[in-house]
Amino acid sequence: MPHCPICLFTETPLSSSSCSLCDTPFDTPFDTPFEKPLDSPSISSVNSSILSRNSSSNSLTSLLDYLPPPPSTLTLGSTPISPYGIGTLPLSISYSSSGRPPRPSALQILQHAFKLNVGYIDTGDSYHPGDDPGYMESCLGEVRTEGVGQVIGTKGGMELVGSKSTDWRLRKFREGEVRECVEGSRRRLGVESLGVWSFHHCEGYGEEEFGRLVREAKECKEEGLVENIGLCNVRLDQLEFARSIVEIAAVQNQWNLWNREAEFEIDEEVGGKRKRKVGKRGVLRYCQENGIVFFPYGMFGGVKARYAEGRPGKVSVHDFKTVVDMAEEKGVSPNQLVMAYVRQKWNCVCLIVGCRKKERIDELVKIRDGLVLFTEGEMEVLDAI
What we know:
Keywords: Oxidoreductase. By secondary structure, this protein is α/β, with parallel strands linked by helices.
């Protein structure tokens, strides 16, 4: 990767003629950031574009106070991807009072995502209105393109029994039904091998039954029907158990400012002794330590907001004054600030933003292509929420 002589950024693609962080041309005739006077016009212009959207300060010292940005790619199994993705559930069902978009509009939104080279597109075989099974997978199969570093991930094991986002129930797989589920998704998506196939809800299974299902998924992977296996809504003990059978490339669990259990230390001190907790505690931390991609869902609250103790009445990130104020200072939306924060804190995270409008995808891409920088102090403030 090119090494920027101004800001020392090293994640710019080889094909670029200027730094992705500060826009310095790579033909700048000096090798270190301090070989030109600090009042040089080129350095002033470099800093102003970065600092203007991150703080009211305008000095090189402030720029150097910012933490290095997170890596621009993640490795999903053996595939490098951009860590910025979309979720298709809001295109599939009546996710809010405005209902779901008609199929032509949904197809246009998906085409927009592919055009912008969104790294990951999350769907599921139950993402459909009640009268059209496999609806969203079929939509994706219709508009799918072969983008570099793009992966479509789907999941099975839940049934939508109504028309709303809360009308779910567990679909218990009988023997052989994992393969049937995989084959159905392959057919609707029009692919030979699924980029990621995940169990939609792991918590409803006992160990023996869960082990049988994971082994069935492993057979699908060994036969080339699935490239990577993932787990959704999974406890830490289940994740460790599944990894004893087959490689797990991805996990999708809830994470938001209401529910940060996935970040906690895996062990808890009880009576002066370290004790392993059974549950979802520490799953994100475990993924970070073991090279597993973590897809957080429910990042912004809204319909799925959880009411944590001591925070009654908060239903979206806009209700957290700390987030709103910092976002305004940096010139981004509260949603964009939360996305940038979780990527900065946890490099294993791939964002999946539920989209029902093109504007939500554009909001995501601005975080990918622009940059929100944080100081250690700002990260500590957001950690404390």
